[in-house]
Amino acid sequence: MDALIRFVDVSFSYSSDAEHELEALADINLDIDDGEFVAVLGHNGSGKSTLAKHMNALLVPTSGKVYVAGIDTQNAERLWEIRQMVGMVFQNPDNQLVATTVEEDVAFGPENLGVPTPEIHRRVDEALAVVGMSDYRLHSPHQLSGGQKQRVAIAGMIAMRPRCVVLDEPTAMLDPVGRREVMQTVIKLNREEKITIVLITHAMEEAILADRVIVMEEGRIVMTGTPREVFSKVETLAKLRLDVPEITSLANRLRQRGFDQIPNNILTIEEMVNVLCQFG
Amino acid sequence: MAMMKNITIGQYVPGESIVHQLDPRTKILATFLFIALLFLVETFTGYALGALMLFVIVLLSRIPVKFVLRGIRPLMFIIVLTLCLHFFMTEGRVILQIWFLKLTYEGLIRGLMMVSRLILLIIGSSLLTLTTSPILLTDGIESLLKPFRAVGVPAHELAMMMTIALRFIPTLVEETEKIMKAQMARGADFESGNIFHRAKSLIPILIPLFVSAFRRADELAVAMEARGYRGGEGRTRFRVLKFTRRDAAALILVAGLVILVGFCF
């Protein structure tokens, strides 16, 4: 099966000035399959946001190609098809809501797509139900918490019926409650609505929920694999100035102190509890 | 409509009255007709009839009269100034002289006339914003301007700008408060000193506010693009305005009264 999003030898630089050229992306080759949940990790300036913006043609590669469901993102005529297929949620919950009420904001995408009015109403109801914000439909955005605003932004995407939602550090500006709300919604989208998820993050606890983790550094993909594979490489991650989840790091320190029975790929507290209980 | 209860901008008073339920376009057009009437009539009887019309509408809208009259207060200065200028600057039969100021009969009539016109104008137009939510008002303006798109009136763009402004006013107010508190925590003083001093002390608030507003604008533009926004072309609407028989009746009634009063008095 063809990948939903395919990067072929993609490079990108923000400045066209050859002397000061700084490659934000370099030789990216990447396939994201339908229904997958991919987390992209990397510290600030590693190119992960630039990567995300290539997925719905907000940016187009300087060289190489990006295909979304087989459509070249440089094909200006089919730009809107791509934007409909790949939705995007940004970091700042305030700066992506356009309308003065929740329901109208969710309707913004379908309105742009030219969906007939009765169908828009159906989609708004549905999308708000998926993110659990139906009770807030007449509220105005400034009355909502950060987590709620992000869920409204996600509903705005769902209402466009995308195949993939790209989330660019959606929890970075939220409190712990907001983070949990947003992550639960994201998981629900992937598992129940079968929407492909690309989650850009630097929270390791979020990355372990993914099917696949991609680690970026200076515009390149430096590691890729299941969360278990990636997080077992503590030293490599440390060199990239990335942490592992706290519990993984604890397991590692225990191993260093001679508790060899503890595996190096523990990701959750429950796993740790199980291993420790077997010690007896 | 309960739709916009939570927006506190403007002076909209939520309600379910017949005036509230009219199509915003009806109300905008009726307001324009009423303003035209005010410039047509030249007699006190005419103004009295105009005031009567307004009074009936206020009663129908079930908005407390006190609330409606409050709209005049900010413009009191202009009203008094108009009155004085007409009282003392009009040539004619002198009926009262205080030092060098001569109050003339013509001035008295003219002044009262102008002030009645001004007051009715203020009340008439504030009735529109009192009974129509900002969102519906925006929709109404967009829909009314649409026919003029052919001659270059950017109807959709204007409406979009209004919507975004309405959306971000509370956000920016919140941000202003935050910046003020941050500056106050570092010893900034916004309260003392003369007016120039105080104006100057606003600079450390305005600059961060502007910087952040531009950043917001930039991010919002990207987010809108990501959601498929490409201007008004080919766009459908979530809320569709409905011009009902009731709207037609209201508009015909207002137009009829305006013509009758406007040309008879």
Description:
- The complex is a heterodimer of chains A (280) and B (265).
- Chain A is of the alpha/beta class and 280 residues long.
- Chain A has one domain: 3-Layer(aba) Sandwich (Rossmann fold).
- In chain A, helix 3 packs parallel to helix 5 and helix 4 packs across helix 5.
- Chain A starts with a strand and ends with a helix.
- Chain B is mainly alpha-helical and 265 residues long.
- Chain B folds into 2 domains: 139 residues, no CATH class; 73 residues, no CATH class.
- Chain B is built from 11 helices and 2 strands, in the order H-H-H-H-H-E-E-H-H-H-H-H-H.
- In chain B, strands 1-2 form a two-stranded antiparallel ribbon.
- The longest helix of chain B has 31 residues.
- Chain B starts with 17 loop residues before the first helix and ends with a helix.
List the helices and strands and how they pair.
The complex is a heterodimer of chains A (280) and B (265).
Chain A (H helix, E strand, L loop, with lengths): L4 E9 L9 E10 L4 E5 L6 H7 L8 E6 L2 E2 L6 H7 E4 L12 H12 L3 H14 L15 H13 L5 E5 L7 H16 L4 E5 L3 H4 L4 E6 L2 E6 L1 H5 L2 H6 L6 H11 L12 H11 L1
Parallel strand pairs in A: 3-8, 3-9, 6-7, 7-8
Antiparallel strand pairs in A: 1-2, 1-4, 4-5, 9-10
Helix pairs in contact in A: 3-4, 3-5, 4-5, 5-6
Chain B lengths: L17 H4 L2 H17 L3 H18 L3 H5 L6 H14 L4 E5 L2 E4 H27 L2 H12 L9 H31 L9 H6 L2 H24 L18 H20 L1
Antiparallel strand pairs in B: 1-2
The percent range for helix content of chain A is 25-40%
Indicate how many domains the architecture of chain A comprises.
1
- Classify the secondary structure makeup of chain B into a structural class: mainly alpha
Count of alpha/pi helices of chain A: 11
Please count the helical segments of chain B. Answer: 11
Q: Which CATH first-tier class of chain A would you pick?
A: Alpha Beta
- Please tell me what the overall shape of chain B is: flat
Q: Name the CATH homologous superfamily of chain A.
A: P-loop containing nucleotide triphosphate hydrolases
Beta fraction of the residues of chain A? Answer: 15-25%
